[in-house]
Amino acid sequence: MDYCPVAILPLTQESAARHDLNSIDVDIYNLIDGEKTVQDVINQSLELPFDAIASIVKLIESGIVEVFPVGSVEKRVQTIAREETFRKVKIAALYISLLICIILLILIGKPRILEGPLDIGPVVSSQINEQKSIAERIAKQVKAPSRTGKDNYGH
Fold first, then answer.
1. Which helix (H) or strand (E) holds 69?
2. Alpha carbon of 84 to those of 60, 95, 97: distances in Å?
3. Do residues 32 and 42 make contact, with C-beta atoms less than 8 angstroms apart?
4. How much is the mean pLDDT over the chain?
5. Which of 65, 89, 100, 147 is the most buried (most CB within 10 A)?
C-alpha cells in the first residue's frame, strides 16, 4: 500500500530551528503536497534515498508531517466535516429540546404570573392585613419626639 505524507503544521523558521531541521529536511517538506506518495517525494528529491527517508521520518517525529494511506486524507477531511456537522446538530437539538420543555412548562403549568395580579390566598392576605392594622395602631400611639434636654420616657 502506498502512503502519502501530508503537512500538518506550516514550516516556519522558528519551527525549523526548534526541531533542528536542516536544508534537506526543508527541501523534502517543500515537496510534500498531500497528493504525492512517499516514493514520489523520494524520487523527486535530489537527495539520496536514505537521506530523503531520514528527513521524512524526522518531519513525522517532529509532528510537522503525518503519513496516511493514499486517498485516506480526503476520507479524513470528510469524516471531520461530518463529525463537526453532527456535533452542531446535537447542540441545536439540545437547545430546541430545552425550548420545547420551557414552552410546555409554561402552557401546562399555567403559572400564576401569566394570569395577572398574584392571588396570594385568603390566609396570607388576612395575615398581611393584620400586620398593617398593628402597624397603624402603633403609629398612632407614638408620642412626639423628645425635645432637647427633656426626657419623655418613663413619665
1. strand 65-69
2. 26, 17, 20
3. no
4. 82
5. 65
